[in-house]
Amino acid sequence: MPPENIYVNTNQVPPQPPPAPAPPEASPVSATPPKKSPFSPKILIFVFGIIAILVFGFLILKGVGVRRTSSEITWWGLWEEASVVTPLIDEYQSQHPGVKINYVMQSPQDYRERLTSRLAEGEGPDIFAFHNSWVPMFRNSLDSLPPAVMNAADYAKTFYPTATSDLTSGTAIVGIPLGYDSLSLFINEDIFSKAGKTPPTTWDDLRVTARELTVKDDQGIITQSGVALGRTENVDHWPEILALLMIQNGVDLSQPTGEAAEGALVFFTLFTTDDGVWDATLPPSTQAFASGKLAMYFGPSWRAFEIGQQNPNLKFKTVTVPQLPKDSPQQPDITYATYWAQGVSAKSAGKAVAWDFLKFLSTQESLQKLFDNQRRVRSFGEPYPRPDMASLLADHPVVGSIISQAPGAQTWFLHSRTFDGPTGINSQMANYFGDAINALNSGTKTATQALETVATGVTQVLSTYGLTR
To answer: Which end is more exposed in the chain, N or C (fewer Cβ atoms within 10 Å of the end residue's Cβ)?
Structure first.
């Protein structure tokens, strides 16, 4: 039998359950239903979900912000010990939390080759030092100074004109100088005082003074030289001196031929070939000056450190380099600039921070601190690259003359001791011009013939870097 209460006959209507008893009459109080909480579980879940999303988003954005402001920068420097730049690095880092700057002092030996190789591999420094004549060799590796950091007009107002011309590639500025230097004429004060002479201001005066201050013994051997000029093997900085003579004489060094170029080349050699005030038997000119046996010597300011170390008792100063007669007294003096700048790698992941740091270093306040730090390790700091700071060094016995002629400084690709290696632009140029000087001294070529060879070589070197017209 089917179980009880299971109806298998579908034609029958199953019995209905009895009606439910009526609820008791509600009291007046219970007639109003109780109020629901406005914070129902669903609403609370929704609110907490929104808050969680907002907090999570904030943390993400905060993390992105940290990554954007955090940077680790590597700076390859030359010449300066870490103790000189560390205080300025610390100051910048304290103002920019999240920024880390690692200064690595490099050896000048093979520096250009090492730097070139590392930059090509994408493993080079973010900031690196380079000579003012190196722009053609590094133009593909140097980043452009962002106008937001410093525009061209402000740059031109901030630094000496030579910085704009030297550190520009195409239309882009590619470096910031933290110092400036140029050729200067060192004077042995005792020799000049004893002879009653005053420092020469023109090249003709220098030639006359050099002859008068040269002393020879009975065998005609030079025991005191008036000036170190005329040769390549023992005249330190002869490339800069020859370039200065040619530029002052109106020579375009990219096309070094013609009467003006020949005149400058011949004049340089006269001190050996005709006047006999310098010869191949003498020691290198820096050493000769330090020994007190040389009245006048050409070199940049940093040579003063070496001279002072070799002979602490030597009394010397620098004066402005000689000039050719001027058409107008308003014409600025022309000297030859040679200095180092700081650039930013085009492959750097921290370009913005790197440029901002360099701008910080180039302010008046930072440069004064840098100068003071340098004075703690040597007798004076690097001359300021800013004309608005010229008065601070105007009376300095070594760099005062260099600063006074800085507004008219010019330069080219003919420098010594830039350590650019045998294939560097300066080394190649020096080989050609040096051969010309040696040819004149040996009498194997005329000035015209010697410079024709130089011109061919110069064109070849310049074409390598796309600098020919």
So the answer is: N
Domain 66-181+338-402: CATH superfamily, name plus number:
Periplasmic binding protein-like II (3.40.190.10)
Global pTM?
0.85
Q: Burial of 113 by CB count in 10 Å (0-12 exposed, 13-18 middle, 19+ buried)?
A: middle
How does the average pLDDT of the chain come out, rounded? Answer: 89
Token readout for 345 is: 């790698």
C-beta separation of 389 from 395 below 8 A? no
Helix spans in 121-202 (H): 135-138, 152-158, 161-166, 189-195
Q: At 230, which amino acid appears? A: G
Q: Return the CATH superfamily for domain 184-336+422-464.
A: Periplasmic binding protein-like II (3.40.190.10)
Q: Compute the distance between CA of residue 60 and CA of residue 78 in angstroms, rounded to an integer.
A: 41
Structure tokens at 271: 């001190």
Residue 268 phi/psi, 5-degree rounding, is -60, -40
Residue 150 scores a pLDDT above 80:
yes
- 6: amino acid identity, one letter: I
